[in-house]
Structure formats: C-alpha cells, structure tokens
C-alpha cells in the first residue's frame, strides 16, 4: 500500500505547482543486510528516485517485517505491499507453470547461464508462466539466481551418503525435497527466513542452500559442515514482482525506469552478490567459525546422479498433476535456453556483472512488453 506526498514541482516559468510523489512499499523475507538488498535493490531504487525527480520512491521492508515468504504472494495480490520477492517454489498451486523453473534445479550449474535462460523462458517462451502471475494480480519482472545449492549441516560429516541418512533437511520446494530424500534424509518444508532459528533449536540437521547463505542468513553461526558437492541452481525467482495495480499506477515512464534497472538488479544480486558472497562466506566461515568444508564422496555423487536421471520424468508427471498443460514444452524451452546461455556466459560474460547487465538489457529487457 503506497503513501503519497505533495511535492513542489518547479516549472520553467518559475511557478510551483503541486505534484504527487508516490512511495511504493517493497517487501522481502531476506535479512536487511542480504546482498539482494544492499547491492541490488537499494541502489536501483535510489536510481529510480533520482531519475524520477523524487516522484517515484521505494521503501524496503526486509526480514519479513511486512510479509514473510509464505505470505508474499497473497500479500502482494491483495495490495498489502506494492512489490516484493515471490519465490514460486513456495506457491506451486498458485503458480503451477512458473514453479517448473525452480523444480528444474538439477539442470543448471552456472548461475549466469541460468539467469539468462530463466528470463528468456519466462518472458518469451512460457506464456502460461506469465499468466500464472497475471491470474494472481501480479507482474513478474525477474530476479537473482543463487549459486549452486550444497548441503549445510549442523554436525561434523564426512561427505558420504551414509553420514546424511535420517537427517532432517530443509528444502524450499519439490526439487530440494527430492534431493534430501535421494540422500536418505527427511525433507522439511520451510522458508529461508525460518531456517536459522530452526537449526539453532535443533529442529533441522541440514539446509539445502548456497554457501552464500552462511553470510546472508548468518548460518555460519550454526553450521559445522558444508558438503561442497553441487546440487543444482534454482531458477525463476521473482525478486521483483509487482502488484498489478501498483505496476499500472507507475505509468509508462515509471515502468520503463523500473525495467531499465532490472538488468542491474539481476546482475548485481547474482554476480556481485551470490557469486561474490560464496567466496567471502567460505573464507569467513572457516576463519571465524571453524566451519569444515568437505567434498562429497562417491556414494553421495552416485545417489544424486540416480535422482537426477529420474528427475525429468518426475518433474513432468508432477507438473501434469497440478494442471500444467504444456510441461514438456516449458522444459524443452528452458533446456534449450540453458545451452544458449551457457555459451554466452562462457564466451562473453565471464562472470562480469557489468557485461551481464548489458547483455540482459540487449537480449531480454529491451524486448519485454508488459
């Protein structure tokens, strides 16, 4: 829900007339100090405020102050906030088509390639994915791509499949739950905002998530072992998702200001944020908290490979069960786009945030029509 202020707009004649300044409330469940906020959203919001002469401003409510992860979709739909971070893997019933992208987590390994592939798939190849958001009174604009998920555990482990059997593992969606079960664990459905407290209280043994979360969610304080075997990369996150009326109220000029910042938001949160945080988090976790990083043993790799080999059929079957009519087409488009963007990532972007920002504008956002 927006707030309005009266500004004095100075005209060329020297006269001042009232002008309405809009403050759009943005809600996220990630902590205030997360790189999504500090490196991506806050600078982008400041730039929009500057370019609009102060007529469009955003107020960021972090850490679930306004809406938690599970409340986000309904809260945005109903106008409690104007924009926010929607994780489609939390809403597979409401977003059955769009939820296929995070469900294909095992397919991706390079966050930069996944960023391009997910945006191309969402905007140009999956009208039913975009319709999911429209049907919920929302507008999807894109978001960050985390680094590969790994196993972050509260006890000393050796990286074998046996060491993981029977452990309670937090997963934020079906792909993560499949991973937990493939390793003999017990999948626990939980939002990212709740996992620190759950692990601190002994309600969780492991978290399926990126190394960066040791820093972003302060998990280095409760994690003792990170098994570094990559589990896949999550796609399709809606870091910037608007209430449809709020998006309309921005007007064409305001919408273009927001769209022009989206490549920056995606690039900064993915490359400078997650990829950079992975490196920084590991160094700090070892030095300050004594976290042990171990490699996955062959038994773990074999269990994951078996699960990944079966994943395609399971993803398609589960999508069909929740009413997705073109699941195979969505999967085929995403897989093809991954191949395309892997080449772009390796040959052109090379983990350079500024290059990724420009490529995303040229290839994606300059062509988006919402």
Structure write-up:
The protein has 13 helices and twelve strands. It has helices at residues 35-51, 72-77, 100-103, 111-125, 127-135, 174-182, 195-200, 213-216, 244-249, 251-289, 298-321, 327-349, 353-363, and strands at 3-10, 16-27, 56-61, 83-86, 138-142, 150-153, 168-171, 186-189, 206-209, 225-227, 238-243, 292-294. The strands form two sheets. Strands 1, 2, 3, 4, 5 and 11 form a six-stranded mixed sheet that branches. The chain has a six-stranded mixed sheet with strand order 8-7-9-6-10-12, with helices on both faces. Strand 1 and strand 2 form a beta hairpin. Helix 1 packs antiparallel against helix 10, helix 4 (111-125) packs across helix 12 and helix 10 runs antiparallel to helix 13.
Give the overall pLDDT as a whole number.
Answer: 93
Low-confidence stretches: 5-19
Strand content: 15-25%
Q: Label the structural class.
A: alpha/beta
User: SSE order, as H and E?
Assistant: EEHEHEHHHEEEHEHEHEEHHEHHH
Q: What's the story with the biggest beta sheet?
A: 6 strands, mixed
The outline comes out as globular
Helical residue percent band:
40-55%
Briefly characterize the structure.
With 370 residues, the protein is an alpha/beta fold. It has helices at 35-51, 72-77, 100-103, 111-125, 127-135, 174-182, 195-200, 213-216, 244-249, 251-289, 298-321, 327-349, 353-363; strands spanning 3-10, 16-27, 56-61, 83-86, 138-142, 150-153, 168-171, 186-189, 206-209, 225-227, 238-243, 292-294.
Fill in the keyword field for this structure.
17% strand; 6-stranded mixed sheet; 370 residues; alpha/beta
């Amino acid at each position: 829900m927006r707030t309005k202020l009266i500004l004095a707009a100075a005209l060329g004649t020297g006269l001042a007339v009232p002008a309405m300044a809009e403050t759009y409330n943005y809600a996220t469940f990630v902590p205030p100090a997360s790189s999504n906020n500090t490196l991506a959203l806050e600078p982008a919001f400041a730039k929009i405020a500057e370019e609009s002469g102060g007529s469009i401003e955003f107020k960021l409510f972090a850490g679930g102050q306004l809406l938690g992860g599970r409340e986000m979709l309904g809260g945005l739909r109903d106008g409690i906030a104007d924009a926010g971070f929607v994780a489609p893997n939390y809403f597979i019933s409401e977003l059955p088509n769009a939820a296929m992208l995070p469900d294909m987590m095992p397919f991706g390994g390079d966050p930069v390639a996944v960023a391009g592939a997910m945006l191309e798939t969402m905007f140009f190849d999956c009208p039913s994915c975009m319709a999911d958001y429209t049907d919920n009174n929302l507008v999807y604009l894109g978001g960050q791509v985390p680094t590969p998920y790994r196993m972050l555990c509260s006890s000393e482990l050796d990286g074998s499949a046996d060491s993981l059997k029977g452990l309670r593992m937090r997963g934020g969606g079906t792909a993560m739950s499949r991973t937990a079960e493939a390793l003999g664990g017990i999948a626990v459905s939980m939002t990212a905002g709740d996992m620190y407290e759950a692990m601190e209280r002994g309600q969780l043994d492991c978290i399926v998530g990126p190394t960066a979360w040791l820093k972003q969610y302060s998990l280095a304080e409760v994690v003792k072992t990170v098994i570094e075997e990559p589990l896949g990369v999550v796609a399709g996150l809606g870091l910037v998702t608007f209430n449809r009326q709020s998006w309309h109220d921005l007007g064409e000029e305001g919408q273009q200001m927001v769209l022009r910042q989206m490549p920056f938001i995606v690039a900064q949160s993915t490359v400078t944020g997650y990829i950079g945080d992975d490196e920084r988090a590991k160094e700090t976790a070892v030095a300050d908290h004594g976290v042990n990083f171990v490699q996955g043993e062959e038994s773990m790799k074999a269990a994951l490979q078996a699960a990944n080999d079966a994943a395609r059929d399971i993803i398609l079957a589960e999508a069909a069960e929740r009413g997705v009519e073109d699941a195979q087409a969505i999967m085929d488009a995403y897989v093809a786009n991954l191949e395309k963007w892997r080449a772009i990532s390796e040959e052109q972007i090379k983990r350079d945030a500024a290059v990724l920002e420009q490529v995303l504008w040229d290839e994606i956002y300059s062509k988006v029509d919402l």
